Amino acid sequence: MLDKYKKLSILLTPKELRTAILLLPVLFGLAAVETAGVFVFMPFLAVAANPDLTVHSPLIAALFRFSGADNHQEFMLRLAAGVFLLYMFISTYRALAHYALYRFINMRRSSIAKRLLANYLHQPYQFFLGRHSAAITKSVLTDVDYVTSNVLKPLGNMIAYGLVALAIIALLFSVHPVAALMMGGGIGGIYALVYLSAHTLLGNVGRERQKANQGRFKTLTELVGGIKEIKLRGLEDSYLDRFISASRTYSNRQAVADSISNLPRILLELLAMAALFGVAIYLVMEDDDFTKTIPLLGLYAVAGYRLIPALHQVYRAATTLQVASAPLEAICRDLLLAGKAGAARGEQRLFPAERISINGLGFRYAKAKQDALREVTLDISANTTVALVGGTGAGKTTLVDLLLGLLPPTRGEIRVDGVLLDKATLPAWQSAIGYVPQQIFLSDTSIAENIALGLKPEEIDMAALEQAARAANIHDFIVQELADGYRTKVGERGVRLSGGQIQRIGIARALYRDPAVLVMDEATSALDTVTEQAVIAAIRAMKGSKTVILVAHRLSTAMLADTIVVMRNGEIAGTGDFSTLAAENEVFGELVRAGQIANPEQTVEGS
Ligand SMILES: Nc1ncnc2c1ncn2[C@@H]1O[C@H](COP(=O)(O)OP(=O)(O)OP(=O)(O)O)[C@@H](O)[C@H]1O
Ligand SMILES: [Mg+2]
Which residue ranges have their beta carbon within 6 Å of ligand 1? Predict the structure, then answer.
């Protein structure tokens, strides 16, 4: 558990903390005006009960002269008007102080979310392998909202109304210490008692609520992503049950928390009356001069009327803070993630003129028992085509991810013309690469924006776009079959396109920036034979001008390569051209025979 004050300093930047401190005088002002509002009733009631005070009390005599009134009645009228004016001022001040406080608090919603998201984005790729995607959505959206409304806001209220309550109690104390202790001690004591007895319960409720909330998000994210299989297998009810179970726990815990926060208020309405009568009886017994007790009783009634809501705000804030400690802890932890922005991506490109050398490369995934790559040593000559082949789980994707600089080597190194790939050189290297992943991600925008990913429509170079689309053999389809051509929207995750079309858009995307190195991970797996041939022709056309590294699952693609690298169990089991490997390499021969390297003529076309 992080210390509470530490958490606040994590939640707010030093600049925001300074602004928060600047708000303190505003809150002291609020306490002062609220107390003044309570106090003014006393002289008013005193004069009403005892008109002689305009002569006997020096303060009231001075007020009388100042008011310019001729008689007692007129003085009372002017006094009433004065009290009303003061109340107008108090209300205006209260409104402005609330605005300043709540504006500051609510603006933190976006500033904390921004810092959190930036932190996530600056984590290495590996970080995302170990996190459920819903956890990130949840913390940036709902947890930040929750912490703003249930940590920062209660904290602000606690300080603001704590000061008000203290100032009112101080006023009561200066007027009549014994009665003040009775009232302050009675009301404050009840709050403290309820809070202390519910403290642990509230913490547990908060943790259970947080866990259930995670469950809700996870179920929904999975449901949206896997709707095809859920429907096919009739898993609707099972997902519904999972959601409902988490949702019920969540609501139930929230209900417990809400009830505890309101408990003392119900008790207090009863006890406040008792306390007031107690004070009244005490005052009457102590002194039977009504002209003295009436103003005091008036003061206590008004003080109680202001004090209970103020103490209630403080108490509510304390309970809410206790429930919120779980999401607060989670956000603070993620705000502390050392997320460093990568080196700025300039125009510079690091591309091989001679070779890419991979030396003794090894890699193990976090929490994995075995290495996914072992001692991989390989030389890729610039501007040649290399195919990686191997059975499933052989380490092809892992090797590609290391080449892309997404995963850091556990051992060994990669050099491009002798330049070591590290933090400093990776941005320039990544700028030189076009990458077609196994799963192509589409955003729900136009075809053009999807190909030129990351650019605004007005920034897109239409000539380059068309060239890339032609090379990926998708241009004709786009202009002939889509209603709005390049401006056609693809739908969420490309639901309006077939698997092969999505794949070709992915290839066009990789080619749009005219990369020196093209990396494809099973990019041709969803293409039909004719389309595949066209894509293969495009890749062949790049021979001699681009370095192409592709993960091949088919004979036809593998045959296209200058060099074939056979992988097994994270190691290289052979390197050579197709005919040599087919004749001499046992692993390769096995792959071909087992159909792991499929002959397109025999492949049943899918998706
Ligand atoms: N995120 C991960 N965490 C732990 N282990 C992983 C992870 N990703 C892959 N692996 C393991 O690393 C090994 C290599 O996987 P990789 O994805 O590189 O295989 P591949 O050759 O691309 O297979 P395929 O042809 O099926 O795509 C496998 O044993 C796999 O289980
Ligand atoms: Mg793979």
Answer: 129, 365, 368, 372, 390, 392-398
Q: What is the 435 CA–ligand 2 centroid distance (Å)?
A: 14
What is the amino acid identity at position 589?
G
**Which of the listed residues 306, 335, 364 is the one where a domain comes to its end?**
335
Q: Where are the beta strands (DSSP E) in 142-237?
A: none
Does 249 fall in a domain? no
Dihedral angle, C-alpha 234, 235, 236, 238, nearest 10 ° = 140
- List pLDDT tens digits, range 178-234: 878 877 777 778 778 888 888 888 888 888 988 898 889 888 888 887 887 888 888
Least confident among 104-108, 536-540, 544-548: 536-540
Residue identifier of the C-alpha nearest atom 11 of ligand 1: 372
Name 201's Cβ contacts closer than 8 Å, sequence gap at least 6: 256, 260
125, 133, 365: residue to mutate for ligand 1 pocket, most atoms within 8 A of CB: 365
Q: Encode 361-373: b = buried (16+ Cβ within 10 Å), e = exposed.
A: bbbbbeeeeebbb
Q: Which residues span the domain enclosing 495?
A: 440-514
pLDDT at 400: 94
pLDDT, average across residues 473-479: 89
- Distance from C-alpha of 360 to C-alpha of 465, rounded to nearest angstrom: 39
Query: Are 518 and 510 contacting, i.e. CB atoms less than 8 angstroms apart?
Result: yes
Please identify, by atom number, the ligand 1 atom nearest to the C-alpha of residue 367.
4
CA-closest residue to ligand 1 atom 1 = 129
- Most informative mutation of 125, 396, 400 for ligand 1 (most atoms within 8 A of CB): 396
| Contact predicate 475/466, CB 8 Å | yes
What pLDDT, in 10s, does the model give residues 51-72?
888 888 888 888 888 888 888 8
Whether 106 and 45 map to the same domain: the answer is yes
Stretch 282-294: mean pLDDT: 77
Task: Decide the pairing of beta strands 517-521 and 433-436.
Answer: parallel
Alpha-carbon distance 542 to 519, whole Å?
Answer: 13
Nearest-atom number in ligand 1 for the CA of 396 is: 21
Q: Does residue 446 sit in the same domain as residue 508? A: yes
Residue owning the nearest CA to atom 27 of ligand 1: 392
Bridge partners of 434, per DSSP, are 518
Q: Is residue 86 part of a domain?
A: yes
> Can you read off the two tokens belonging to residue 536?
């293969």
Burial 105-130 (b: 16+ CB within 10 A, else e): beebeebbbebbbebbeebeeeeeee
Cα–Cα distance measured from residue 587 to residue 598, given in angstroms and rounded to the nearest whole number: 15
Question: 552 C-alpha vs ligand 2 centroid, how far in Å?
Answer: 10
CA of 169 to the centre of ligand 2 (A): 70
CA angle 399, 401, 402 (to 5 degrees): 65
User: Does the residue 199 lie in any domain?
Assistant: yes
Specify the amino acid at residue 347: E
Q: Which DSSP string do the residues of 293-328 spell out, in sequence order?
A: HHHHHHHHHHHHHHHHHHHHHHHHHHHHHHHTHHHH
In a domain, 281, yes or no: yes
- CA–centroid distance, residue 123 to ligand 1 (Å): 21
Expressed in angstroms and rounded, the spacing between residue 574 Cα and the centre of ligand 2 is 19
Dihedral (Cα; 177, 182, 184, 189), 10-degree rounding: 140
